[in-house]
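step=encode ok
step=design start
structure_in=
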């Protein structure tokens, strides 16, 4: 078979296998709140979290846990995307609460929800949210989760029913965060048991990136925050008893988040006491960041009272972003007083980023005057990268004026990469003016892939006009990996108009790779229409499939459809 035809096919297959290999890694030790990009397809890896120690003695008798503050609703700040398997059955327990009058189905989405009397009432409230087009759906479903947590009967069944109904990942996350927050406040034993029952799944779809579902860390965080809302001291003692590890980090972060809402100075004092432990310094940085976000002036006053040393450096890392946005010159002066050289260099680039967005000339002048020989290249790159976000044409003009050829090309690629996020067609046109190199090809592929995710039709128009045949074959394969997953019918329709040859063959296989197992029969039917085109003989398709790098199970499915 012609090697020009096989090249893009093998590239597409290798890309698929590389993406499938991502399931071999799963990071479970980071605090809750970290963002993970996601969507879902097939289960791959499960991460376990150590068992939690018993709760410390409470200051209330057994069965008489502190009653909830039924209408205190904490703003949820965890922005990680998530969902939970609808087959999960939460642990049985009784919550505390009082019933309110039922809500009419056709009412506007309320600020709060009454405690549902029955599963059917809970489902009625939920369906009204799902049917609504209101921008407050996420808040409303979180409030409903809190109300369901306060049910005195059929609570477990109501949660399971809700998970069956809610398909949207973000809505499921908000529902479960609300549910576990309220349950953690009312009945921490039940909430922690629920969190312990959740299994972390890493799922993979080669065309839609890796995804993490609503997992143990998110569940544990919500439960601990709710518990801390009513019993800070209990939670602190319980966390102190935890062994170092992911569960303790998650619990520390959750406690710090809730404590800082209730008493910022108390939370800071608690976190400062943990600075000597290197694996807990992030906690002070996290709380300091919240301090600066809510009260920058107060945060700066607090910073000025800390003696030079590790604690001051750690606190500064938490407030540096807000300070740099407000006053980059002053923030940079503070950075120069840190005791760690590597920490100072990292924070300086953070300041330069925001400074360059606001006043690129001043930021560039600081680099020329103050950067060392060891940091100059990376500092200039930081300025140009931020500059390209606000004024790409000016940043590109500067990059083009740099005398050193290697530095000029590096900065130009930096600007083009940033342009690609906002104006991909213009970025690709500029990229085409650069000399051929593997780095240029890699950048072109990256821009096209991201563009295809957002607007496959516009990407296809650009790919059609590409002059280089080899690059067009590769670009077409990458385009179809995205488009074939998003809308197989449209991807097939576009592919049908391509002339028989390497580009079309790359598209055919990429659509197959995008759908992996063709569990959707409609998608398989669309692909069959493509391969049964008289201009693409079945024998040719069989040969393409046989020599591709597609997984064996998928090959069997596709070959049987010929």
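sequence_out=
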């Amino acid at each position: 078979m012609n090697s020009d035809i096989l090249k893009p096919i093998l590239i597409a297959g290798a890309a698929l296998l590389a993406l499938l290999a991502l399931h071999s890694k799963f990071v479970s030790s980071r605090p809750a709140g970290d963002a993970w990009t996601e969507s879902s397809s097939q289960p791959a890896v499960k991460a376990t979290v150590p068992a939690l120690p018993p709760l410390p003695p409470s200051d209330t008798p057994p069965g008489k846990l502190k009653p909830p503050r039924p209408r205190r609703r904490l703003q949820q700040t965890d922005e990680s995307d998530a969902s939970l398997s609808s087959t999960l059955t939460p642990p049985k327990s009784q919550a505390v609460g009082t019933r309110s009058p039922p809500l009419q189905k056709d009412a506007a989405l309320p600020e709060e929800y009454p405690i549902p009397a029955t599963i059917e009432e809970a489902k009625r409230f939920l369906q009204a949210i799902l049917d609504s087009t209101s921008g407050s759906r996420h808040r409303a479903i979180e409030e409903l989760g809190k109300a369901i947590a306060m049910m005195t009967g059929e609570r477990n069944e109501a949660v399971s029913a809700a998970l069956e109904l809610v398909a949207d990942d973000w809505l499921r996350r908000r529902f479960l965060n609300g549910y576990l927050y309220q349950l953690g406040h009312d009945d921490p034993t039940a909430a922690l048991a629920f969190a312990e029952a959740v299994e972390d799944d890493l799922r993979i779809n080669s065309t839609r990136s890796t995804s993490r579902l609503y997992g143990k860390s998110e569940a544990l965080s919500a439960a601990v925050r709710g518990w801390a809302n009513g019993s800070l001291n209990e939670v602190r003692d319980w966390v102190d008893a935890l062994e170092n590890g992911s569960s303790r980090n998650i619990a520390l972060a959750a406690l710090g988040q809730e404590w800082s809402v209730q008493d910022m100075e108390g939370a800071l004092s608690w976190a400062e006491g943990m600075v000597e432990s290197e694996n807990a310094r992030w906690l002070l940085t996290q709380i300091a960041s919240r301090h600066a976000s809510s009260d920058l002036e107060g945060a700066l006053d607090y910073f000025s009272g800390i003696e030079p040393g590790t604690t001051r450096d750690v606190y500064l890392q938490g407030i540096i972003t807000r300070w740099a946005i407000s006053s980059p010159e002053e923030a940079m002066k503070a950075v120069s007083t840190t005791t760690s050289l590597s920490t100072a260099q990292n924070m300086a680039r953070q300041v330069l980023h925001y400074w360059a967005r606001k006043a690129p000339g001043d930021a560039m002048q600081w680099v020329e005057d103050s950067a060392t020989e060891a940091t100059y290249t990376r500092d200039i790159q930081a300025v140009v990268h931020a500059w390209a976000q606000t004024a790409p044409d000016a940043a590109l003009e500067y990059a083009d004026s740099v005398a050193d050829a290697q530095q000029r090309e590096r900065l130009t690629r930096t600007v083009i990469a940033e342009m690609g996020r906002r104006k991909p067609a213009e970025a690709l046109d500029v990229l085409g003016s650069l000399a051929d190199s593997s780095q240029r090809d890699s950048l072109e592929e990256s821009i096209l892939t991201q563009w295809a995710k957002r607007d496959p039709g516009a990407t296809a128009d650009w790919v059609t006009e590409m002059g280089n045949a080899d690059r067009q074959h590769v670009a077409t394969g990458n385009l179809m990996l995205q488009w074939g997953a998003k809308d197989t019918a449209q991807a097939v329709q576009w592919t049908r108009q391509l002339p028989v040859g390497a580009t079309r063959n790359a598209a055919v296989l990429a659509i197959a790779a995008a759908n992996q197992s063709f569990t959707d029969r409609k998608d398989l039917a669309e692909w069959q229409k493509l391969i049964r085109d008289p201009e693409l003989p079945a024998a040719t398709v069989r040969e393409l499939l046989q020599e591709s790098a597609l997984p064996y199970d998928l090959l069997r499915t596709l070959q049987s459809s010929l």
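step=design ok
step=annotate ok -> Residues 1-107, 201-212 have pLDDT under 50 and may be disordered.
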